[in-house]
Design a protein that fits this description.
about 110 residues, mainly beta, seven-stranded mixed sheet, four-stranded antiparallel sheet, 11 strands
């Protein structure tokens, strides 16, 4: 499977973005799905995860209440809706499937 993220761009503080991650060659169905981010000079961190089996979600404390992870009905795309963005949300955002497969990342920059 190949994962391709999109939707990252420069936004102002308080703005919103919706990131997408599309699966090619397979779907996200029956797998654990996660969004991660890596800021310059920092380790990659998980921000949101979604279980395709029971639709449960989890969020890091830093994004809880502002970000929402979801999928389309066909489990071909997963999304990360990001609201009330802060400069500290600036990072490259990656999606991951099944603890093995990663996308190439999409850059999000939030200006103060």
């Amino acid at each position: 499977v190949r994962l391709v993220e999109s939707g990252g761009k420069l936004v102002q503080t308080g703005g919103s973005l919706r990131l997408s991650c599309e699966a090619f060659g397979d779907t996200f169905d029956d797998y654990a799905i996660g969004w991660f981010r890596q800021a310059p000079g920092k380790e990659r961190e998980g921000v949101a995860c979604l279980s395709s089996s029971d639709l449960s979600t989890e969020y890091s404390d830093s994004v809880k209440g502002r970000f929402t992870i979801s999928s389309d009905d066909a489990w071909k795309k997963v999304f990360l809706q990001m609201n009330s963005l802060k400069p500290e949300d600036t990072a490259v955002y990656y999606c991951r499937r099944d603890y093995h497969y990663w996308g190439q990342g999409t850059q999000v920059a939030v200006s103060s």
